[in-house]
Amino acid sequence: MAIAKSERLMNLALCLLGTRRPLSKRELRGSIEAYLEASGDDAFNRMFERDKDDLRELGLVIETVENLDGETGYLARRDSNRLPPITLDAEEAAALGLAAKVWQQARLAGAASGALQKLRAAGMPEAGDSYDTQPSALEPRIPVHEAAFEPLMLACRDRRPVVFDYRKANAARPETRQVEPWTLECWRGHWYLAGWDRDRGAERVFRLSRITGKVRSRAGAFTAPVPDVVTVRETVESWAGETATRSARIRLRTGCGYPLRARAQAVTEGTDGWDELEIPYGHGLDAWLVEFGPDVVVLEPADLRADVVERLRAVAKG
Q1: Helices (DSSP H) in the chain: which residue ranges?
Q2: How far apart are CA 46 and CA 44, in angstroms?
Q3: Average pLDDT, stretch 58-81?
Q4: 195-207, pLDDT tens digit by residue?
């Protein structure tokens, strides 16, 4: 069905782009095989209206023209549907070159490299090439090691529900989650999925490294509205611990935990091999502190200390 619809949309677009005069529904139906196979005028009209709306949503400018006989015709003028020439200055070309390098270690490396080659063939300035030849102490990288990244990225793009097994940090075994995926976000070197959890009836954020097994796609449309990009990003940051609502005091072994030290609001150096830090406390801090193992001791608040201890016990139990 998907292939048939794609071919039908392509044929309709070619007909509308290839004509010099508006074509009526009757003429379009006689020119496209899929329309000829429609069972009745009502079925054809519904199919044609959906196809026309889909093409417009994809960006094709379709004009509606009424002739002298009162019959409605359609056409897509080439000058209205031609992209303007690509003009990039040296700085814009350099930015695109860096963006392509970001994905070198990910599954998107081939697509990024191919896009860059096409832009260069179209006349993109060679200034971006300097980033390929000149050595640099720092290079942009977005690590993508999780197998769930690619199927979730495609599901976000296609607005397709998914099912996967997910193990929370304090859980001994994974649970099956049914999710309508919104977007993927990278935060502190970890990838997170933000979406609508159907079983819980609420938005949730999932760390990709805790997804076990394969991500399975499901048919059907989303049941919950998708928020705008800004709202989703704020949700990811909040659930991952970026948004702090108060402060916490911890003891940190001397010479360890440099990411924690970088976020510290105050540091008191100790003489017993431990320093005391005051750090922002938001959702997800307990999971982050657990990653530092025996090098961190939570002093306060008590609820954060209890959460860290619970997570450590879950890890110890396997």
Answers
A1: 2-18, 25-31, 33-36, 41-57, 90-102, 109-121, 130-133, 149-158, 229-240, 258-263, 285-290, 302-317
A2: 5
A3: 84
A4: 999 999 998 989 8
